[in-house]
Specification:
single chain; mainly alpha
């Protein structure tokens, strides 16, 4: 069930991003959407990477010639998928805020 929901979230993100090719030029553009997604993906990746990592010294199975703190099983495939799903959620939130003008970006106090 959870895998199906995550696939739908990622598919929705891709569909909305691709729809930007055909929508009028307001809100998030194609390039902006891609950049926002990639930045979100990397930030989420670095927050998810340390989750659930067990070092070799914790399992008392240190391989000769390696760092004792090196992970036994980093689970990179699972973490890459989780990163993709969380980054999709972040992108969808940003997309909704910009596309539906929930927060007027022009009214934010940026220094000029």
């Amino acid at each position: 069930m959870l895998k199906g929901v995550s696939i739908v979230l990622v598919a929705l993100t891709v569909a909305l991003w691709l729809a930007q090719f055909f929508l009028p030029a307001h809100g998030i553009g194609v390039a902006t959407g891609l950049v926002i997604y990639l930045v979100a993906w990397w930030i989420v990746l670095f927050t998810i990477l340390p989750l659930g990592v067990r070092g070799q010294h914790e399992d008392h199975e240190v391989v000769a010639g390696t760092e004792p703190g090196a992970p036994v099983d980093p689970g990179l495939k699972r973490k890459a998928w989780l990163t993709t799903v969380v980054a999709s959620i972040v992108w969808l939130l940003i997309f909704a805020v910009v596309e539906f003008s929930l927060i007027d970006v022009n009214s934010l106090p940026f220094p000029r």
